Amino acid sequence: MKFMQRLCRDQSGATAIEYALICGLIAVAAVSAMQGIGDQLSTTFNSTSSTMANG
């Protein structure tokens, strides 16, 4: 019973979990942004390649 009371009062674990969740959300946002930028770059390079090939 004392273990449960001590566990409920301990805040250090909660802070670590909050930081982990924030880092996870930032990682998801970064990956999503990079995928969008990657698609745009691919389109740009394909267009440039076609233009150069056709003269």
Brief overview:
This protein has 55 residues and is mostly helical. It contains 2 helices and no strands. Helix content is 93%, strand content 0%.
Map the helices and strands.
Elements: H1 2-9, H2 12-54
Description:
- The chain has 55 residues and is mainly alpha-helical.
- Helix content is 93%, strand content 0%.
- The protein has helices at residues 2-9, 12-54.
- It is rod-shaped.
- The model has no long low-confidence stretch (mean pLDDT 86).
List keywords for this structure.
2 helices, rod-shaped, mainly alpha, 55 residues
Q: Spell out the helices and strands N to C.
A: HH
Strand content: under 5%
What is the CA-based Rg, rounded?
24 Å
Tell me the distance between the termini.
80 Å
| Number of discrete helical segments | 2
For the largest beta-sheet, the strand count, sense and barrel status come to: none
How many beta-strand segments? 0
Could you say which structural class the secondary elements and strand pairing correspond to? mainly alpha
Shape summary: rod-shaped
